[in-house]
Design brief:
Shape: globular
Order of helices and strands: EEEHHHEE
Number of strands: 5
Mean pLDDT: 91
Number of domains: 1
Strand order of the largest sheet: 3-2-1-5-4
Distance between the termini: 14 Å
Low-confidence stretches: none
Amino acid sequence: MHTELYDLRVTVERIEGRSVCGMAAGDYFELVDSSHLRIPEGKHFCVYALQAVLPLLPAKQRDLPTGDWLDRDNLVCCPDPEERVIMRIDRIGRCRLATGDLT
């Protein structure tokens, strides 16, 4: 038996404050193959921005019911009020996984 999940890309769309963490618009990470986090070589992603988006990723990896707010909303804000890093979650592909390989 298999299940399909979306691969995701989380991109810094804009920074409305001052970037203390060193990220810039266009920086991103990808979540692929269910749980593999990829950050481009030589780049970083702030752990505080990451923790803001993490709770939404499992839902965004799955097909959602028609009309579900999470299916159409894709922006997340970093919790640091001075930075106001706005991130966008995009579905970039699908992966097929054997359910026996998942916990």
